[in-house]
Write a structure and sequence with these properties.
The protein is of the alpha/beta class and about 325 residues long. The protein has one domain: TIM Barrel, CATH 3.20.20. About 50% of the residues lie in helices and about 10% in strands. The chain is built from 16 helices and 11 strands. The strands form 3 sheets. Strands 1-4-7-8-9-10-11 form a 7-stranded parallel sheet, with helices on both faces. The protein has a two-stranded antiparallel ribbon with strand order 2-3. The protein has a two-stranded antiparallel ribbon with strand order 5-6. Strand 2 and strand 3 form a beta hairpin. The longest helix has 24 residues. The structure holds coproporphyrinogen III (CP3). The site of coproporphyrinogen III has 20 residues, from strand 3. Coproporphyrinogen III binds next to strand 3.
């Protein structure tokens, strides 16, 4: 069994070490940028099973990380549900207008078929990945996907509340249908050879407080229940919800919880119980001096040294990160 699974399932944190990073396959790697420059359409790149598998393995070859996360995107789900997805340089993703009738009509078969290249990429990667290493699959949580699907984010850190209220009657329908399809996507990824699923609720921090139970806790709990019933090790990442991490943990009961960089690690250790903790270190620290980076890492390693902990960051690696810094950080953690 891989170390990540031993930690998540058997809570063997003291005897097992495991390190991987969110966005470990991405723009900070010259070998990724090379492939990307030859593949201008990002969705098409994600649908190229051979290249997706090759990109997934790039950081493993370079750094010998303990886990690979499949190279894909959370927005492959809205794509498979019929929306066009475009990535505009320096602006982020842009989705074509959401059509609720078409969305509610979508068949499970067509959905799975459209995502078949992702499952194929998982199969290829599992064959080429060392048996001792974990292959991680992922999904976006319903709320985070809905933010993109309905285009309700007005700026980097704000939600257009008016737009949200206007759609309020549709929201439960949309969230429930998404939960349905996301369970299928989890199941298909696990059947193809992935062993763990991470649920990214990257925009959970934007939910109006009165809606956090309905839009964040309950949808995540339903997905985790599905994983538990099917014995699929799972990690949740409800980014930006601050002290609500505690309530999230009590309600959702995932195997692991990934800390964002705003969460005080000491607070997390005292307040998040019966769950494996992961990450937390600010990805910006890799842009600072080596001394600052290693001091930051020491703090996390030290605080979590006697509980089950997966070394990772508090969000994805930034595109401007120097790959040699990533290497240093991994070596430092392994030798600590
Ligand atoms: O290495 C890995 O982590 C696996 C691959 C992965 C990608 N996206 C590849 C990607 C994963 C796990 C994701 C998840 C994802 N995608 C999230 C949740 C995690 C988070 O960052 O909060 C979100 C919100 C998205 C949506 C998304 N995809 C955005 C907002 C963007 C554009 C902005 C950005 O950061 O680049 C993407 C594009 C994207 N997804 C890239 C990569 C490597 C960059 C593509 C490029 O322009 O080359």
């Amino acid at each position: 069994m891989s170390n990540l699974k031993k930690i998540l399932i058997n809570k063997k944190g003291k005897t097992c070490k495991s390190v991987w990073f969110m966005r470990q396959a991405g723009r900070y790697l010259p070998e990724f940028r090379k492939i990307r420059s030859q593949n201008k359409n990002f969705i098409d790149l994600c649908l190229n099973s051979q290249l997706s598998s090759e990109i997934t393995l790039q950081p493993i070859k370079r750094f010998n990380l303990d886990s690979a996360i499949i190279f894909s995107d959370i927005l492959m789900v809205p794509y498979a549900l019929g929306q066009q997805v475009n990535f505009i340089k320096n602006e982020g993703p842009n989705l074509s207008k959401f059509n609720i009738e078409r969305f509610l009509d979508m068949s499970e078969r067509e959905f799975s078929q459209k995502l078949n290249p992702v499952y194929k990429a998982i199969e290829i990667t599992r064959k080429n990945l060392d048996k001792k290493k974990t292959l991680i699959s992922f999904i976006g949580a319903p709320w985070t996907l809905m933010v993109y699907m309905l285009n309700i984010k007005s700026s980097k850190a704000h939600i257009n509340l008016e737009k949200l209220e206007k759609k309020s009657t549709d929201i439960n329908k949309i969230l429930n249908k998404l939960i349905n399809f996301l369970c299928i996507h989890i199941n298909n990824q696990i059947s193809a050879g992935a062993e763990v699923v991470q649920i990214f609720d990257s925009w959970a921090g934007l939910i109006p407080i009165k809606n956090i139970t309905d839009y964040c806790f309950i949808p995540n709990a339903k997905l985790v229940d599905f994983c538990r019933k099917n014995k699929i090790p799972n990690i949740c990442f409800p980014r930006g919800i601050k002290k609500k991490y505690e309530e999230f943990n009590k309600i959702v009961k995932s195997d692991g919880i990934s800390l964002d960089y705003e969460i005080d690690p000491e607070w997390a250790k005292s307040n998040l119980k019966d769950v494996v903790l992961q990450g937390g270190l600010d990805p910006k620290i890799l842009l600072k001096s080596e001394k600052e980076m290693l001091e930051g890492a020491t703090k996390y390693i030290h605080i979590f040294k006697d509980i089950p902990y997966v070394f990772n960051l508090g969000h994805g690696l930034l595109p401007e990160t120097d790959p040699d810094r990533v290497k240093k950080l991994i070596e430092f953690y392994r030798n600590y």
